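can u do me a favor
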């Protein structure tokens, strides 16, 4: 989901950061895929992704959490790659993907009121060239069924906080010397993410006195707000 991440990092989060600063709140966005070297061991990958989420929760029990889901369930570690300490620390579910475990720990178990999920319409990838489809679409029975079940459970548990979005293939874009699939039409996704987070932040950190004018009486940014961004490992 390179295109979606890029839209959020370059458009949604900068706009949200300005909005937060006007309310004396410091936004620190965290992509749960940051800081994971390519040659990392399985344990390092798992501890980096889920450990960053735990750090967010130490600052804010209900960390602001955005989940992006498409047609890939993500990497499922084998039982041999999950030692007892990881299983105990992160409530590991057998045969779950890392993305699924991020959702369980960041939102599902506590029914996090600050979590929202955005699911890409499968029709958005219908024009993808064959060489890109493997990076975007699962075809094997287990991951297809697991993703369908995950989305169904999220809709049942989070209701209106689960939204669908569409986009369209728009050729390729070179990123770090690699051709990535480019998409258009992601502006509404960006707007929806910003609106959700603004509403959630306003609810958790209401303005003193209940009006914009109350901002003038506040000191410099006083609240450190961390938000985790979970996404499937797609191009």
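np, heres the sequence
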């Amino acid at each position: 989901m390179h295109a979606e991440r890029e839209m959020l990092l370059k458009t949604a989060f900068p706009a949200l950061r300005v909005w937060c600063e006007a309310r004396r709140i410091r936004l620190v966005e965290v992509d749960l895929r940051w800081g994971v070297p390519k040659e990392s061991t399985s344990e390092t990958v798992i501890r980096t992704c889920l450990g960053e989420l735990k750090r967010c929760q130490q600052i804010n029990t209900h960390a602001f959490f955005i989940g992006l889901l498409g047609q890939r369930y993500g990497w499922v570690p084998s039982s041999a790659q999950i030692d007892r300490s990881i299983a105990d620390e992160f409530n590991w579910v057998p045969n779950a993907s890392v993305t699924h475990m991020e959702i369980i720990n960041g939102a599902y178990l506590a029914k996090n009121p600050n979590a929202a999920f955005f699911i890409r319409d499968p029709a958005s990838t219908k024009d993808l060239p064959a060489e890109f489809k493997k990076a975007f679409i699962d075809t094997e029975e287990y991951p297809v069924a697991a993703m369908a079940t995950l989305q169904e459970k999220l809709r049942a548990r989070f209701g209106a906080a689960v939204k669908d979005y569409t986009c369209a293939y728009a050729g390729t874009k070179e990123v770090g010397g690699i051709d990535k699939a480019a998409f258009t039409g992601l502006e509404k996704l960006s707007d929806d993410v910003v609106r959700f987070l603004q509403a959630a932040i306003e609810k958790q950190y209401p303005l003193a006195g209940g009006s914009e004018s109350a901002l003038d009486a506040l000191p410099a940014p006083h609240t450190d707000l961390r938000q985790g961004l979970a996404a499937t490992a797609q191009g």
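Residues 217-235 have pLDDT under 50 and may be disordered. hope that helps!!
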